[in-house]
Amino acid sequence: MKKVIAAVVLIALLTVAIVQAVDHKTETKPPDTVKEASATKEGLTIGDKAPDFELKTLTGETVKLSDLKGKKVMLNFWATWCGPCKEEMPDMEKFSKSAPQDLKILAVNIDPQLDVQGFVDEYKLTFPVLLDTEDTVNGIYQIISIPTTYFISSDGLVQNKYVGTMKLEDMKNFTNQLK
């Protein structure tokens, strides 16, 4: 009888621990400030110089980050199979239509072997989609989960980072903070 009671108590405690862990995870809000965002240990840190790269777009144009010096950059890493990426793309497209002139939105696709053009057509994306065919930029930026978005100031410094699905309001808030 004691073993049965002990087993029931143990299962109850495990259930409570799992429920609290899941609740804690869903209640975590994105960082509001640069200081909070820099507490994240994954990838580049706030204040780092954004590593330069050169990638081709779906249309074959070459985009080099250093050529955008003087502009603010929203650099998004995504994949065609990523559910959260699919969720944020309509808001990114909406945002790109009303983005300030001094902001450049770049979406780096990390699975170019898949049907990226089909994805772009389906979501009617008009901002530049870059293909990381050699997986180098993904590595340089130390992307651990997608979507991940870096906000780069006009002087080329990582000013903020957002891991997860962004909403339109998040995009506006983070880009408004860019210098």
Q: What is the end-to-end distance?
A: 67 Å
Order of helices and strands: HHEEEHEHEHEEH
Rg over CA atoms, rounded to whole Å, is: 20 Å
Mean pLDDT over the residues: 86
What is the number of strand segments? 7
Query: Into which percent range does the helicity of residues fall?
Result: 25-40%
* Morphology call: elongated
Structural class computed from helices and strand pairing? alpha/beta
Number of helices: 6
Q: In percent terms, what proportion of residues is strand?
A: 15-25%
Largest sheet: 7 strands, mixed
Instruction: Kindly report the spatial arrangement of strands forming the biggest sheet.
Output: 2-1-5-4-3-6-7
Model regions low in confidence, pLDDT < 50 over at least 5 residues: 24-41
Descriptors:
elongated, 179 residues, single chain, alpha/beta
Task: Report on this structure.
This protein has 179 residues and is an alpha/beta fold. It contains six helices and seven strands, in the order H-H-E-E-E-H-E-H-E-H-E-E-H. It has a seven-stranded mixed beta sheet. A hairpin with a 5-residue loop joins strand 6 and strand 7 (158-163). The longest helix has 26 residues, at 2-27. The chain is elongated.
